[in-house]
Specification:
About 20% of the residues lie in helices and about 35% in strands. The protein is globular and about 50 Å long. It has a single domain, classed as Penicillin V Acylase, Chain A. By secondary structure, it is α+β, with helices and mostly antiparallel strands. The chain is built from five helices and 13 strands. It comes from Paraburkholderia phymatum (strain DSM 17167 / CIP 108236 / LMG 21445 / STM815) (Burkholderia phymatum). InterPro entries: TANGO2 (IPR008551). This is NRDE family protein.
Length: about 270
């Protein structure tokens, strides 16, 4: 994932608890499975990276959630670093000796070994606990629970004001102000935006100006790298019941044949057990 915007309302009653729309940006040659229920981890719904074995965003029937973005620091990249996608799948599948199931406890454990990995942001939640936490291994900030509100993560720390993050976070807030439960297709459409930022707005992250310009779009489309899929989801609190709706639109129908821009859709709905 390279752009996530989300709205978090932990005190919701008979209204949305969590709304998210997110783009996964990746090299087009990297094979992955689309969102599906994993055979080897019952109750886990996510796409799957077939190179590293982990995932970029997923959820479970018992109310766990996680999503990850890479932190852009090309000069610090290590080829021998462990894959970051397992940080998501480990939380969702209950690996790493998770006893309490609390998002913050998990991130504190991850932070103990955070220097092993290339840069990342990790968002971890448990809807039954109504807890959502964030950690970045390139930030001096310790893992922390998130306050209510509308937030965004791209390839820097939480809410860094890169143009596409600021624009999409504001658009999500306006969309929810008009309709707290919009169609997921509306949230998908919000992220399929190819507009690039002005040169004077671009961050300086150690890549060329031409590359910064291309990556400033919410929906990235270059010959070898781009937005591989968009995921929208909403968790709605209906008194004691929590219901989840998720929609993925991607460029791969499961056969690993890339079609750009993607129009393959998969939708899922379930109640949290």
């Amino acid at each position: 994932m390279c752009l996530i915007v989300f709205d978090w309302r932990p005190d919701a009653s008979d209204s949305p608890l969590f709304t998210l729309t997110a783009n996964r940006d990746e090299f087009l040659k990297r094979t992955a499975q689309p969102m599906h229920w994993w055979d080897d981890a019952p109750g886990l719904l996510a796409g799957r990276d077939l190179v590293g074995g982990g995932t970029w965003l997923g959820m479970t029937r018992d109310g766990r959630f996680a999503a990850l973005t890479n932190y852009r620091a090309p000069s610090e990249m290590r080829a021998d670093a462990p894959t970051r996608g397992t940080l998501v799948s480990n939380w969702l599948s209950g690996e790493r000796g998770i006893e309490s199931g609390a998002p913050l406890d998990y991130l504190l454990r991850v932070a103990q070994d955070g220097d092993m990995y290339n840069g990342f942001n990790l968002l971890v939640g448990d809807w039954t606990r109504r807890e959502l936490a964030w950690y970045c291994n390139r930030s001096p900030a310790a893992p922390a629970l998130l306050a209510p509100g509308t937030h965004g993560i791209s390839n820097a720390v939480l809410d860094t004001p890169w143009p596409k993050l600021v624009r999409k976070r504001a658009e999500l807030a306006r969309t929810l102000a008009d309709d707290s439960r919009p169609p997921l297709t509306t949230l998908i459409g919000l992220m399929r935006d190819p507009r690039v930022a002005r040169d004077d707005e671009l961050p300086a992250t150690g890549i060329s100006l031409e590359r910064e310009r291309a990556l400033s779009a919410a929906f990235i489309d270059t010959p070898e790298y781009g937005t591989r899929g968009t995921t929208a989801m909403q968790v709605v609190a209906q008194h004691k019941r929590l219901s989840v709706s998720a929609l993925e639109r991607s460029d791969d129908n499961g056969s690993h044949r890339v079609k750009r821009p993607g129009d393959y859709e998969r939708s899922f709905t379930f109640d949290i057990a």
